Amino acid sequence: MNKGPENKKEIHVSEEEIAKQYQYMNSIKEANAQCEMQTGRKKLAFLQSFGCQMNENDSERLWGMLSEMGYGEGKNSEESDVIIFNTCCVRENAEEKVYGHLGALKKQKMDNQEKIIAICGCMMQQGHVVEHIKKKYRHVDIVFGTHNLYRFPELLNKAVNTRSAVIDVDESAGSIVEGLPIERKDSIKAWVTVMYGCNNFCSYCIVPYVRGRERSRSIEDIVDEIAELGQNNFMEVTLLGQNVNSYGKDFAGNVSFAELLSEINKVEGIERIRFMTSHPKDLTEDIILAMRDSKKVCEHLHLPIQAGSTRILSEMNRKYTKEDYLNLIGRIKEKIPGISLTTDIIVGYPGETEEDFEETLDVLRKVRFDFAYTFLYSRRTGTPAAKSEDQVSEKVKKSRFERLLGVQNKISKEINDTLLGTTEEILVEGLSKNSIWNYTGRTRTNKIVNFKGSKELVGKLVKVKITDIQTWSLEGEVISW
Ligand code: 5AD
Ligand code: SF4
């Protein structure tokens, strides 16, 4: 097996560089400890993450570094000494939220000049955003991007010591970083990034411009991380990447995603494996077979279609037709009966006609997804689709969106209804948000099941009989564990 050693030399951030960051972490840790001795108060940090799981995983790395530097978790920005926004730019509303939050911090900074306000993530990889922040949000102390997240300790040192704004955005195609500390949010399920970046340049999407080119971590590094999770009683991993199906294509010798799944399937302690996001053009037969044959890989696939019309798919640069997609789904359902399918759909891509939209509804009815994540098309500066003159009006977009939800919700409910009375294996995650008496877990098909339980069940696989069905979740009774 080719584990990509050549690749490792070229694009990995050097061990010396990481060691340097640990030195910066140490020096802040000492300063913080001294301050705590003098004041009796631990320094606190507040981190808000926007966007996808990849960002959540980056935030876990930021937390790893913050903890290493001696920061505790603040409940809000008011009581915290360091405030970080890890931003997303996939859609305009995510950006607007960040500007709203940043604006609200102005007064806090005026009242306490010692507070450090940092902003990082995908939005910062866009030049026009950084310029806007420099002009309009002068109370921001640190700006950094996705490629140099590992340099946060150095940037924080600089900001604390110089008391001037530190802006550091790396516009290269990106690198791979190993060896950073991590503090995970959950103790049962973990995110594991297996590849970074995207080469697809779908015409509506900003991600390839802000997350750089596709680069895969070595199998060794991934398996080591997952083995450690297994030893630490984690039960489930979700492998992350913008396009996980093309894992390993950047190595000389082509290590495949299928091979990666089979390797991870052998890791002791881990009972469930999930992954996202898949691209239909790269979801090859060997991946379907690896899913079928790897016992721990769950019967769930998130496979974004984006639109049902072949004409729109071609405009989107998705590289498959409606028929290709339906065909692929047919093969998956045949090999993995009972698999649950979810998707992403964009409504109102430039030039989308009523007929095009009907094609999307037709796909929903034919595939019968368990769930669809639906988005109104959002114009992203710098992408080809943003230049189109043929933008669909907000009114039409919203009306199509509602119609789509109507069709999909009915299908989701009908699929869930078939589970009434069945027995499902669920991984118990903890207390349910609905009521303190109820516990919650997920089936292998990723459906939420709420049930009456007790805390000894948390982190265990238990058998539950499904007794009631909601559109978005199920209810059940524990029958064995
Ligand atoms: N507008 C709306 N939705 C988008 N997505 C990506 N870019 C845009 C955009 N400009 C959606 C796609 C993708 C998901 C993560 O976000 O459906 O799969
Ligand atoms: Fe964006 Fe397309 Fe890459 Fe997904 S595959 S991140 S939609 S460019």
From TrEMBL:
**InterPro entries reported for this sequence:** Elp3/MiaA/NifB-like_rSAM, Methylthiotransferase, Methylthiotransferase_CS, Methylthiotransferase_N, Methylthiotransferase_N_sf, MiaB_methiolase, rSAM, rSAM_horseshoe
Keyword 4Fe-4S in annotation = yes
Catalysis: reaction(s): N(6)-dimethylallyladenosine(37) in tRNA + (sulfur carrier)-SH + AH2 + 2 S-adenosyl-L-methionine = 2-methylsulfanyl-N(6)-dimethylallyladenosine(37) in tRNA + (sulfur carrier)-H + 5'-deoxyadenosine + L-methionine + A + S-adenosyl-L-homocysteine + 2 H(+)
Cellular component terms (Gene Ontology): cytosol
**Note on how the cofactor is bound:** Binds 2 [4Fe-4S] clusters. One cluster is coordinated with 3 cysteines and an exchangeable S-adenosyl-L-methionine.
Q: Which UniProt keywords apply?
A: 4Fe-4S, Cytoplasm, Iron, Iron-sulfur, Metal-binding, S-adenosyl-L-methionine, Transferase, tRNA processing
Top-rank lineage group of the source organism: Bacteria
Record-listed E.C. numbers: 2.8.4.3
Q: Where is the TRAM domain?
A: 417-480
Which residues of the sequence carry a binding annotation for [4Fe-4S] cluster 2?
198, 202, 205
What SUPFAM superfamilies has UniProt attached to this entry? Radical SAM enzymes
**In this protein, which residues make up the domain named Radical SAM core?**
184-414
What subcellular compartments does it reside in? Cytoplasm
Keyword Cell division assigned: no
Q: Describe the location of the MTTase N-terminal domain by residue ranges.
A: 43-161
- Which of this chain's residues are annotated to bind [4Fe-4S] cluster 1? 52, 88, 122
User: What Gene3D superfamilies does its record include?
Assistant: Methylthiotransferase, N-terminal domain, tm_1862 like domain
Q: How does it assemble?
A: Monomer.
Q: State its role.
A: Catalyzes the methylthiolation of N6-(dimethylallyl)adenosine (i(6)A), leading to the formation of 2-methylthio-N6-(dimethylallyl)adenosine (ms(2)i(6)A) at position 37 in tRNAs that read codons beginning with uridine.
What protein name does the entry list?
A: tRNA-2-methylthio-N(6)-dimethylallyladenosine synthase
Please give the organism.
Pseudobacteroides cellulosolvens ATCC 35603 = DSM 2933
